[in-house]
Amino acid sequence: MADRLQAVKGMNDALPPETAKWNFVERRCRAVLESHGYREIRTPLCEYTQLFARSIGEATDIVEKEMYTFDDRDGRSLTLRPEGTAGVVRAYIEHSIAKSEPVSRWYYIGPMYRHERMQKGRYRQFTQVGCEVFGIAEPTIDAELCAMLAALLQDLGVQNVTCYVNSLGRGDDRTAYREALTAYLEGHVEELCEDCRRRLGQSPLRVLDCKVAGCAAVAANAPAILDHLGEASRAHFDGVRRALEALEVRYEVDPHMVRGLDYYTGTIFELRGEGGTLGSQNAICGGGRYDGLVEQLGGPATPAVGFAMGLERLALVVPGEPETFEPGLDVFLAHHGDEARLWALTTAERIRRLGYRADMDHRQSSMKTQLKRADRLHARLVLVAGEQEIAARKVALRDMASGTQREIAADDLDAEIKRSLA
Ligand code: ATP
Ligand code: MG
Questions:
Q1: What separation in Å is there between the alpha carbon of 172 and the centre of ligand 1?
Q2: Is 313 in the pocket of ligand 1 (CB under 6 A)?
Q3: CA distance 96 to 89
Q4: What CATH class has 327-421?
Q5: What are 311-330's pLDDT values in tens digits?
Q6: Which of 208, 193, 195, 213 is nearest to 262 (CA)?
Q7: CATH 3.40.50.800 occupies which residues in the chain?
């Protein structure tokens, strides 16, 4: 027997009714982001590999061991995007956007790929919705992003989410901190995992983001970067906190938080769901400032800040069974005989043009089967037509909620439907 075909491990199909909930969540995301002035950008699913190596950082989990990298037929190394920011920044530079607009607010929605160990809420293809703001250095925009996320989650009915913030400081603050951190970590080398030991010299901050228990324990007592911030970074972070308070965002400072990508500078934040369904995959969304990245990738020096949110994790915490997000059917047209089927076919088209959802059975099914189907589709109204009714230009209209049925003239149909569905 041939092998059973299966989807790639860690890459899931989304089937109805799940997709209905997905679409609802996506629509709400788009609406909230667009209400804040964000415009959509779509970049390719894959990019030249060096883009990710240069932006995310060589010594990160993502670049070291999680990327789907392959040579295309021209022998160039391509990588399925593991995150969205790198491609967006590449596009921002490639199209010289800075020349035509001083501030850009962009958002994207789409799949990302990371070869990770699979768990609930952790997949190899997952969907992110993200925002990037280019051209604003002021701390108020950092806070506005957090407030927008909090508002979005509230809009979606998600409860018990806390916004955690920290600052990674600027380059010079980071140098001082790296020294202090490296000195501390060197005293605990024995307790660190192999990866962290190896990266210690190159990228000590990575240890703070390691999920291995031993490393997490060491990280918990590490010196905090907040104590090593210079004047400018501290002023910026104070500005973020003041704005968060003015916006009444519930937040906490997490002095040990770092992020899994190297390009962050200054403010970083994460929204985490407390308790509930997500388990250890409780980070719904993460982001922060990356003031150096545009220049680092060959563009003009441009302050920037953004975030990415995992839509699978978000959908897990949005209340409501998937079925309840399905739009349901307004009218089902049941018919008997060839004439009646053609009548149903054309009438369904007309009803759809009135703005209603209409469906019919194209097979030669019995009336009983058709009515059962109408019921399963949760149709609000069912039209029943046989040869005689069609000849007499009449049709039966059944209201499924009340179970009442009455005969109406075909010419009054549109008005009757409108009245019944109002
Ligand atoms: P985590 O700490 O959970 O690994 P991360 O720091 O790697 O998350 P980011 O790279 O900042 O996450 O991505 C932002 C968001 O994307 C996360 O908060 C999460 O909701 C989602 N996400 C990241 N990786 C995955 C994955 N493998 N499967 C599903 N969602 C993911
Ligand atoms: Mg991760």
A1: 28
A2: yes
A3: 11
A4: alpha beta
A5: 999 999 999 999 999 989 99
A6: 208
A7: 327-421
* Among protein residues, the one whose CA lies closest to atom 29 of ligand 1: 122
In angstroms, the CA 103 to CA 299 distance is 15
Residue 400: DSSP 8-state: T
Residue 260 Cβ < 6 Å to ligand 1:
yes
Q: Please state, in angstroms and rounded to a whole number, the distance separating the CA atoms of residues 223 and 115.
A: 31
In percent, the amount of the chain with pLDDT more than 90 equals 83
Sign of the dihedral defined by the CA atoms of residues 131, 93, 44, 269, in that order: negative
CA of 13 to the centre of ligand 2 (A): 21
Please give the number of the atom of ligand 1 that sits closest to the Cα of 287. Answer: 11
DSSP-based three-state secondary structure for 175: helix
| pLDDT tens for each residue of 43-70 | 999 999 999 999 999 888 899 999 999 9
CA distances 247 to 144, 241, 244, 251, 393, Å, are 8, 10, 5, 11, 63
Per DSSP (E only), the strands in 22-103 are 39-40, 46-48, 69-71, 77-80
CATH 2.60.120.260 fits 18-169+229-322, yes or no: no
* Region label for 348, one of left (φ > 0), alpha (ψ between -120 and 50) or beta (otherwise): alpha
- H-assigned helices in 189-320: 194-199, 213-220, 231-246, 293-296, 311-317
Give Cβ neighbours of residue 8 (< 8 Å, ≥ 6 apart).
124, 125
DSSP letter at 75? Answer: S
Enter the DSSP assignment of 323.
G
**Amino acid residing at 274:** E
State residue 173's pLDDT score. Answer: 87
Residue with tokens 């030249």: 48
Ligand 1 pocket, 161 CB below 6 A?
no
Contact, 243 vs 143, CB < 8 A?
yes
85-123 pLDDT per residue, tens: 999 999 999 999 999 999 999 999 999 999 999 888 999
